[in-house]
Design brief:
Blueprint lengths: L4 E6 L8 H13 L4 E7 L2 H9 L4 E4 L5 H14 L4 E5 L5 H9 L3 E5 L11 E4 L9 E2 L10 H4 L12 E5 L8 H9 L8 E6 L6 H4 L8 E5 L5 H6 L2 E4 L3 H8 L4 E5 L2 H12 L4 E5 L5 H12 L2 H14 L4 H11 L2
Parallel strand pairs: 1-2, 1-4, 2-3, 4-5, 5-6, 6-7, 8-9, 8-11, 9-10, 11-12, 12-13
Length: 332
């Protein structure tokens, strides 16, 4: 019997970040061996090489000034693989693309699609939308890597004194919020508190961060695949409003969110209403003083950190990957 084919179409890079790619890879790791899995992605050397290292076939489609030609190339590449199921993890699908898949009786699952064409998908999954009965919406559909469901069961202890703060503001950090965060800490958060900074693979401001090495309590961690050990050991995490926020919450790390953009800020507000994060808003619009003030308030309040931790672990159980895999199986 021929193995069924699954194609992931996703995007990533400096402006978009790595969230879409990492979500698809998390799902692909569970599916490989049982199905033939392929990736089709916009041309980005770092991301394409990363996917290849995970031993998945990658088809690169170069972007140009002509969006119509780009979509035609994408569609033709998808069709050439003769897939049973296509999983689109892009912000907006075109009508022509979706209609072409439907005409060929290819099953379709779309993530986070903001276009009207999502109506043509067999399944629409959006963890950023408000929960709704009968829909695959809300944080219960957050896809994290396979290690998180196990780690989520670990009991979390809140220390009276803060020893470590983790800063992780995305794989590309297009707004250079890492630099802003460290600037806000200078002279306000010093030894014995250690500040660990995750530097993502597509970050273009690496050289601008090197100046912060002069602070004895700041250390940099480069291109880590798995951030879970750092979240587990941190007393506070300062993160963006994407997948990283949910990883932190799943492990019960008291979390402060500084969003890279409006969609992330919307995510953070929803989590704030649930009482599981301290939300700073869009990072480019907040002052250094506010960042430092909110972090220091959390440092000085073990009870607030414990409350955030307990609520976070109840809200994000790490099992979203299994709920999504169930939808995939139902459509194969």
């Amino acid at each position: 019997m021929q193995e069924k084919k699954i194609v992931f179409r996703c995007q990533g890079g400096y402006q978009i970040g790595w969230g879409h790619v990492m979500r698809c890879l998390s799902l692909a790791q569970w599916l490989k061996g049982k199905y033939n899995v392929y990736f089709i992605i916009n041309q980005d050397p770092k991301i394409c090489e990363y996917i290849k290292q995970k031993e998945f076939p990658v088809f690169e489609v170069s972007e140009g000034k002509d969006d119509k030609k780009f979509e035609e190339k994408m569609t033709n590449t998808v069709i050439s693989l003769d897939p049973h199921l296509v999983i689109n993890d892009i912000r907006g699908t075109t009508q022509e693309y979706m209609q072409t898949l439907k005409m060929r009786n290819i099953k379709i699952i779309n993530f986070d699609d903001i276009s009207n064409n999502v109506k043509m998908a067999n399944v629409y999954i959006d963890a950023n939308k408000k929960e709704k009965i009968g829909k695959c919406f809300g944080p219960s559909y957050i896809v994290l890597s396979s290690i998180y469901p196990k780690l989520a069961k670990k009991k979390r202890k809140t220390h009276k004194r803060v020893k470590k703060i983790l800063v992780s503001l995305g794989g590309s950090d297009p707004n250079n919020l890492t630099d802003k965060a460290l600037r806000s800490f200078e002279g306000k958060i010093a030894d014995p508190i250690e500040i660990q900074v995750i530097v993502g693979p597509s970050l273009k401001h690496r050289e601008r961060l090197e100046k912060w090495s002069r602070l004895g309590n700041v250390s940099f961690l480069y291109d880590y695949d798995d951030l879970s050990p750092f979240f587990l050991n941190a007393d506070i995490a300062l993160v963006n409003g994407g997948i990283t926020m949910f990883e932190s919450l799943c492990l019960g790390t008291p979390t402060v969110v500084m969003a890279q953009n409006k969609p992330q800020a919307k995510n953070a507000r929803r989590m704030e209403r649930k009482g599981v994060v301290v939300n700073l808003g869009v990072g480019t619009k907040i002052s250094d003083k506010k960042i430092a003030r909110k972090i220091i308030a959390l440092i000085n309040s073990p009870s607030t950190r414990e409350r955030l931790s307990n609520k976070a672990k109840k809200e994000i159980d790490g099992k979203g990957v299994f709920r999504v895999l169930e939808q995939i199986e139902l459509n194969l």
